Amino acid sequence: MARDHTPFPRRRGLAAASVTALALTGTALAGLPAEAAGGPKGHDVSSHQKNVDWKSAKAKGARFVYVKATEGTTYRNPYFDQQYNGSRGAGLIRGAYHFALPDKSSGAAQARHFVRNGGGWTADGWTLPPALDIEYNPYDAKHKCYDMKSSALVRWIKSFSDETKRLTGRRPVIYTTAHWWNRCTGGSRAFASDHALWIARYDAADAGSLPAGWSFWTLWQYDNSGSLPGDQNLFNGSMAQLKRFARGA
Q1: What domains are there in the chain, each with its CATH number?
Q2: pTM here?
Q3: Among 197, 200, 192, CA closest to 222
Q4: I want to staple 93 with a disulfide (CB 3.0 to 4.6 A). Which of 21, 64, 158, 186 is the partner?
Q5: Binning pLDDT at 50, 70 and 90, where does residue 4 land?
């Protein structure tokens, strides 16, 4: 994901993946520049981007954005309101994401913190599903999988998902990389049928890789810099399908 200023000193740029049970044309990632794929362009931001010029982002082609809301159970993006409400005011479809710290507290506790601090959802056509960013531990290089067994991580993700569904009515989009997912969850296939995939993949030569279980992606984060603030993303479908996705179709 977009880099963030957090209470932790070693915060780094992040990456994510997710897929949808929505009736989109299922395609694997193509080894083409993302702009050439023809889907709506979007981006994701965090406190690193501070107060975003949303009119400029819209003029440059942004049609949707994910905004970092929370991390763990104690952090909230101090720029969240400007970013989340400002993007909506400029006419972008927007949603919120949570950065997972599975070794700090339960999935359910982090889901509650997320929803209380901006991670909600309404079927208004302008709000993307809540998103869970789960990837390599940025604070401890020796414990990239948070020093947890794959079965424990799968249970943690399920706990977060179940609580998010209970509180918002929607399963979260899952942002991850194929490498993290296959290594740290043991290639779990438990989520692909009802969780949209937001895949982080920058290398076109390896663009066909998806986490185990998913056969296509819904969102593709293809670059960590570009014309839009934060990371660059693409939606796998038309603008009409993106609006249906936001409504919960």
Answers
A1: 34-140+155-184+205-236 (3.20.20.80)
A2: 0.88
A3: 200
A4: 64
A5: low
